[in-house]
Specification:
By secondary structure, this protein is of the alpha+beta class. Helices cover about 45% and strands about 20% of the residues.
């Protein structure tokens, strides 16, 4: 009977949607056909070879100046960063300049002195991180400034990169956060930094976050649990991110999140990070382990204890489902196609340069082209639209049962 009820609701939701004007992704040529951002610097030939061939090691590169969108700026440091990319030819970089450099996207202009140049080796067609960032930003989640860029060494392209304001810097400089930490597995803190507060206060805030895992999840249930968690974490933001991870099937996200202390609201707010693994067939821990813990709950991964508690506590799960429903109501088919359209328009000019896109041969998914990009984006749009209809119906049914 419950299955028939859900199917009936799916039919109703689909029928209601079909009565609306549904926009579809527009894959026509954009008016701007020149790559928006270019970064260029010089290295001795031996260092370029070392950069390409080194595996699993962090390198410091001696770069005197860097040219960013035509501006020549002295550098302070250039280092490789990341674990997975350190084994591949196209390395991600941690760059610090002595002056701000200007970057441009379709909706934003921003300046950074320190930034990540992320090679996106694991990001097929270079769109998954961008899609995730833009959708979460549309949903009012804190997302650092980012854009595409063509990175050149000795006037030879290294391919398409994503320029990204480091989460810690974004938190302190753009959000006026007094402390920011990165959550590790099992509620651990991988690293944290603070500004304009004492070490004692920073230690207290770190302990406040860890109290979620050491005390609150074990001591409270129901509405009391919700109240205690809300005093530590912005649950609406956390629930929205968790719903996104479920809708987009993010295969690895438990430790891909920063939390910054909002001193005005007296609680932590999230800064999501790294979306290479969206649209996965299974979570990081595997379906068998996930299903044994979460069963039919609308949460994709069981790796984090807070997420498991959200799934298993009826009051908390109801609050989560309500937030998930609001997320799906805002992410309409029209909104999704609009976001995908803008991303296509932004990345397309880089695909027009054969030398730039040829660098994709060194990535995990191999050589790509405009045809692959278009097919990928159409498939993503269709898959997510189908998921939106299905999950909206499921949530309506589930909320009636609570």
């Amino acid at each position: 009977m419950k299955t028939l009820c859900i199917l009936h609701i799916v039919f109703l939701v689909a029928s209601q949607s079909s009565g609306q004007v549904t926009e579809s992704i527009n894959l026509s040529k954009p008016s701007q056909l020149t790559p928006t951002n270019t970064i260029s610097f010089a290295l001795p030939a031996s260092k370029v070879t070392q950069l390409h061939q080194t595996k699993g090691e962090k390198l410091a590169l001696q770069v005197r100046v860097m040219v960013v969108n035509g501006d020549t700026i002295e550098t302070e440091r250039v280092r490789t960063r990341g674990n997975a990319s350190s084994y591949l030819r196209r390395k991600s970089l941690n760059i610090k300049l002595k002056e701000n450099a200007s970057f441009y996207s379709r909706r934003d202009t921003f300046s950074l002195k320190k930034f990540y140049a992320i090679s996106m080796n694991m990001d097929r067609n270079y769109i998954r991180n961008k899609i995730s960032c833009d959708i979460l930003k549309y949903l009012n989640i804190n997302i650092p400034s980012n854009c595409y860029a063509n990175l050149l060494i000795n006037n030879k392209t290294e391919g398409i990169f994503m320029i990204f304001d480091p989460p810690e810097q974004f938190a302190t400089d753009q959000c006026d956060a007094s402390l920011v930490l990165r959550r590790g597995h099992n509620g651990t803190v991988e690293n944290f930094q603070h500004e304009e507060i004492s070490r004692t206060e920073a230690s207290m805030l770190k302990q406040k976050f860890q109290s979620v895992y050491k005390e609150i999840l074990h001591k409270y249930n129901g509405e009391e649990l919700y109240r205690h968690l809300e005093r530590v974490i912005d649950l609406d933001g956390y629930f929205t991110w968790l719903a996104f991870n479920h809708l987009f099937k993010n295969g690895d996200y438990a430790d891909e999140i920063y939390l910054m202390w909002n001193k005005n609201k007296n609680r932590f707010e999230i800064i999501p990070w790294d979306f290479d693994d969206i649209l996965s067939s299974k979570p990081h821990e595997g379906l068998e382990k996930r299903n044994a813990i979460l069963r039919d709950k609308l949460i994709f991964s069981s790796e984090d204890a807070l997420d498991v508690k959200i799934a298993n506590d009826d009051f908390l799960y109801t609050k989560y489902l309500q937030c998930y429903r609001l997320f799906l109501e805002k992410l309409t088919s029209s909104a999704l196609s609009g976001i995908l359209n803008e991303i296509f328009q932004e990345v397309y000019p880089y695909y027009l340069h054969s030398d730039v896109i040829a660098q994709s041969q060194y990535d995990q998914s191999g050589l790509t082209d405009i045809a692959n990009l278009k097919t990928d984006m159409r498939n993503i749009e269709q898959a997510i639209n189908a998921q939106i209809v299905t999950h909206r119906a499921q949530i309506v049914s589930l909320l009636q049962g609570y």
